[in-house]
Records
---
Amino acid sequence: MEVGDMAYLRNCWYAAAWSEDLQPGSLLARTLLDEPLVLFRDPAGRAVALDDMCPHRLAPLRLGRLLPDGRLQCGYHGLEFDATGQCVRNPHGSGRISRNCRVRAYPLVERHTLAWIWMGDEPPDEDLIPEFAYLDPGSGHDVGRRDTILMRANYRYVVDNLMDLSHASFLHDGLLGNAETVPAEIKVHQDGPYIHVRRDMYNVQPPLLRDLLFKRDGAAVNMWQSIRWSAPAAVLNDVGTYAPGTDREEFSGQLGCHILTPETADTTHYFTAAARQGPLGAVPDEGEEALKARIAELRRHAFKDQDDPMLTAQQENIRRHPGVSPVLLEIDIGPVRCQRALDALIAAEQQRAAEDAAP
Ligand code: FES
Ligand SMILES: [Fe+2]
């Protein structure tokens, strides 16, 4: 079986949207895990996620409108729903509302400037929301653009991509890696729900993004990439650059999130934002805001213009050759560990569901 055919892990938190993209008074239509949803804020500002389907004639609620009192009015015949998904007004006839006239509402929690959704049937557990504290206001980090990119590949191929950053030397040659960053010490370890893959590279020419964040003199550097995965697909990348022969605490680098939510089996919402870290780093000639904007553009270019076409074409080949298994290399140790951990969680979840369904 190839990964696109596998079930989703459901009893976990997926990023549904950046909090800032849920604007009061507007509807955000978004498909997650093959389910079309409509997201909005209630009058108290709480984020809400409902199935995007009216129970009357199954019209999409995204074509309706939010009323000033916070109700969502279906755009077809005007039934009104509250934030729990209950129909609370039928403007027709006697106004009677049957008990099953309701829409499924999903638990949605805002944390780390993202709205996280729970799409499983088990009770939601907020302790399972992955940690991305650097995104929090007041964290001391100056976070750049909070970007959302639609990748035209299954989310598990994006996990493989992120958890083996050796590809930066080839697919992002000059920007995030180069020929000198191919040899690297790779270390993998697990702590609790997190799997970490660390690559250290010594005395190498800095790729463009590293040079921009460091001394901007093109001199050889030592670099690390330390990337952390947790299920189902939340990734934090900690990168740093320091001068050979100096203390690695005297570094300049970046924290970046790469949080993936399946849209469908073939497409993925990719939530990403980066912040500079470390005591070093040249004061940019163009100013901090201009540098942040430039880095956000370079990151989007790497993910959308370089990773996405490769993953899309890779997915087409995998679909075309369903019986062919990949020939794995030493660099695949991180992705393999993560995919196995995810497989085990999905299998355990399916086992619990089967036991619950048993007579
Ligand atoms: S389809 Fe929504 S009110 Fe008729
Ligand atoms: Fe990449």
---
Amino acid sequence: MVPPKQQPFRSLSPAVWRASTVVFDSLDEFARRKERQPDGYSYGVTGTPTARELERQIAALEGAAHCVVTPSGQSALLTSLMGFVRAGDHLLISAACYTPMKILAEKWLINFGVHVEYYPPTMGAEIETYLRPNTKMICLESPGTITMEMQDVPAITAVARRHGVMTMMDNTWASPLAFKPLQHGVDLSIEAATKVLGGHSDLLLGAISMNDYSYYEVLRETQSVFGQQTSPDDCFLVLRGLKTLKVRFAAQGATTINIAEQLELHPLVQTVLLPALPSDAGHDIWKRDFSGTGCLFSVILTPAPDEAYAAFFDALRVFSIGASSGGVDSLAAFYPAALQAERLFAFTDQPVVRLSIGLEDVDELMADLHNGLHAFEKVLNRTGCITWGL
Ligand SMILES: Cc1ncc(COP(=O)(O)O)c(C=O)c1O
């Protein structure tokens, strides 16, 4: 019989390697430890084998040569900007990009001497008119956060490449399963792995994927110099999430379309903002470039006082109230009219209800939304607004 210590250990799950300090076999190896970057191990902040395994798997999904993981989606956006944008550069950001990234640009980058400008999120090749000799990078997100505008990504990246301008895209909505930004000319593909890649609303993690090795070197250094170590435990949880990503994504996408189609027919619903619906303004681009739908979409209801929205949210029992997406539990969030009114190039000045669809039963979710809409209608009746007799 083989003694226990000689038996090989094999498991289906990756090991969780924790380390601040990496140790070396010789002084020579120690002295040359920095040469191990951007791939290897020199100190805990640049990652352990658990992080590398996650980077390898995300890069494979993205069709990328390299990936750098960071402690959150926002930190992936931050790392991409801090890695490449310098004082005097012009930075173009889609007006529908994730708000904290815009705050980072407006409150920090502007004070570092960066010229920040927003462009209309539905703009395609016409983005050329926004370029300046010092334009360094264009930030895309398609569909846009909250209002779901689709961007013509290949048209924008073709212009950018012609002018030697870098592009980065927040691809969180689609995930690499439905859209691979690098195949459409984007330089840096960003995922908030916090969302559907992790899938269970219990961690924060970001990923930047790319093909260019020199970008990879810059981003590994930026990630580590900014002290952005990603917890190996969180890397492990995302690795576990990836094992079920395809089935979750497909199931949540199917339920999303089902619910969105039902809501479109509801008399209290004015507009459903989901590019996978033929009625959506961005549907043609979605159909051309995307192979699936994310589980996040927005709804504009019939004009009503804020009180009616409060009643809607109070009535929800299956949906939890929260601003996130991609998890197995459904969420509902509210974005008041003022937010749209103050956003540049917004197409609506009405409140937006945003839903992230999880893995619950579709009938259960619809019943919950009907309860919410019923409560919404009651307030409309009480305040003398139109009633639909639901
Ligand atoms: C589109 C998008 N990008 C980035 C982020 C940031 O991700 P994290 O919460 O991991 O910082 C979010 C989070 O809500 C998001 O929705």
---
Amino acid sequence: MTGAGVRVGPAPGALPLLGHALPLGRRPLDFLASLPAHGDLVRIKLGPVPFHVLCDPDLVHQVLVDDRTYDKGGAIFDLVRTVAGNGLATCPHRDHRRQRRLLQPAFHRDRLPAYARVMSLEISAMLRSWTDGRSLDVLATMNELTASLATRTLFAAELDDATFGELRLCMHDVMTGMMRRMLLPWTVLNRLPTTGNRRFVRARRRLRQYVAQLTTDYRRAGVDHGDLLSILLAVRDDDGQGLTEAEIHDQVFTFYLGGSETTAPLLSWSLYLLGRHPAVRERLHEEVDAVLAGRIAEHDDIPRLGLTRRVIMETLRLYPPGWLFTRVTTRATELAGHRLPAGSIVVYSPHIVHHRADLFPDPERFDPDRWGEDAGRLARGVFTPFGSGARKCIGEVFALTEATLALASIVARWQLDPLPGAHTRLLPRLSSTPRSLPMTVRKRHPGAAERSVPAHGRTGSKPYDEQGQPLEEERWQTW
Ligand code: HEM
């Protein structure tokens, strides 16, 4: 059953009725990483349902660039759709081109410096709240940072403290509810009137109301606040049609989800890996000391933060936050010489290809220096933390900017070490996160004066400029 030297076959060990549900449920990433040994296109079963897993970069590329035949679909997308509706990440191919065209301007490179300004302010505020010698829950802290940032970039208009806080809380409750649904996907359990289910439903309703209210306020004011919501309200297609209320709501959720659930684990894993590899951390200290001299990183610093970038790339290789994606064939087709009827489920996981020893020698080793000059020449489909083809992540540059600014600024000021004896485990949920990540934070230059973008209130208060003065409205609401 092969096509042009491509190996196609079933994964061993399927149990009657369960198929491969046990290894996939217990140690999903190990199970996935074991599949290339059985072929380039490997068939696994979950209960009676067959899934076709792509283990070869060429096949990954073929599938991702043909989004008409391999459309979004499958259990994870269905779950995300319950919250993000028909937003850019979940909509089917027939709606995608229009949505992508409308939303692309929000992520144009020209907008990055202004987004970066908001990022530096939030990073500065976070670092000011750290205490020398304390133990920090790194994952929770990074979640808070990226969630604040997502909220600020979506709704830059002045939100009072209470609204900002409640928005964040609702988002948190919706995320928690989604995670639970992912782990317990049986609909009957999700309909029971448990505290968790009630909180999820209430938070989702409140968020809908908030977005509707903000939309009405923005429309009434007729002002471009320079944030994502303003762009969503302003965009028009060739027929002069804008996004409907429902579409605006779905995009807000999509950006929030995309913006917070991915960059937080990326930053957490980067800090974890640096804590475990003091020699790399030492070199990174030299880089950030030379470039930043203790201040918060800004957009113009990024080209000089080469090792920071390589650490981020290597973390994305080892722990790609999005670890499993599915596609459903819209028609009967052939892949690797193998016939797939319409409705077949195809799985791609960046984790599988990123851990292949023939593509990344000694794949479990953390080695940022893999990402030298010629790394850009990697074959297609080999490195896909942001996907590929028409459905490639729209927030890639935004995310890399955020991660670079945050990592460089943290490392410039603080040294993070794992607690003695503490080991973290991977928890593959919607994204692959550490199960928990307590680390001790130590100030690197205890005597040094703070040189930073000054702090502002964590929730909703105005930010301040370098002299500690409140920023002018127009400087803060930069996009
Ligand atoms: C480290 C951070 C991030 C990672 C690893 C990541 C990863 C991905 C991946 C793998 C996809 C493709 C999914 C598929 O093929 O089914 C994707 C799509 C997407 N991401 Fe990201 N993402 C990140 C950050 C962001 C940010 C910051 C945003 C928005 C602010 C965002 C918004 C989106 C959207 C809207 C899509 C759908 C694009 C489309 O279908 O046209 N992501 N992301």
---
Amino acid sequence: MVGIDKKTKEEKKLKDEDLFKVVDSTIDSRTYFNLIQIARRLNIEAYFGAISSGKEARIYPAKTIEGKYYAIKIYYTSTAQSKRAIKKYTEGDIRFKDVKISNTKQLINTWARKEYKNLSKMYQAGVRVPRPIMVYENILVMEFIGENGLRAPLLKELGDEEITEGLYEDLISQIHIMVKRALLVHGDLSEYNVMVFNEKCYIIDVSQAISIDHDEALKLLERDIENINNFFESKGINIKPKEEIILSLISGE
Ligand SMILES: Nc1ncnc2c1ncn2[C@@H]1O[C@H](COP(=O)(O)OP(=O)(O)OP(=O)(O)O)[C@@H](O)[C@H]1O
Ligand SMILES: [Mg+2]
């Protein structure tokens, strides 16, 4: 009996290790453990190498046994990595003005949860964002934007000929839905936080989004629109004046 138990244990261990197609030294053991739990829950058979390392997180594609892909956003938890992240979370964010950050991990988990909540609110309101699947400590699972584990390009990465007036209008209409139906302002919108798949814009990276009631909302909304307008204008697209867009966003219709 002992022998059989041992074998089952070893086989299971091998299976868990098989999950990870690459070894990533930035993932700590707790995160590994959590990834195994998530794999069991979502039928994930493999995690692949990071497709991006940003300021606050890394994104990994994961494949289910049904052949479906998810995007796994793992927020950095190590002190060195999260130092930059904490700066991003707290600097200029008045909600953190009086908060003493005593526990880094807790803050990081809160941030992952916040992104999940914002994604859910936007998704339910009809904004084109990756569909949120689940959040677990510092790990957010969402719909994969792209095909067969190959991510779609960012707006920033498109060739000039792919940047059209139609795409601009699509993005402005997404901002409309975000503000008028989800009642949120992105707060970090630019050509770096929009993916383009099948000629449609997908808004990503929504952890810092804030309610339209927030004191800073109008200022951040103006900055978001300025960023988008500047980008499309630099590509020769006829843009709508910022004031006109803001007016239509804050007016009753
Ligand atoms: N749902 C998704 N499907 C496919 N790829 C994605 C998805 N979400 C994000 N990515 C890819 O991962 C990158 C980083 O994502 P995101 O902007 O959310 O993280 P970040 O850590 O805030 O990065 P940064 O600091 O660069 O803004 C994106 O630029 C995009 O290339
Ligand atoms: Mg980003």
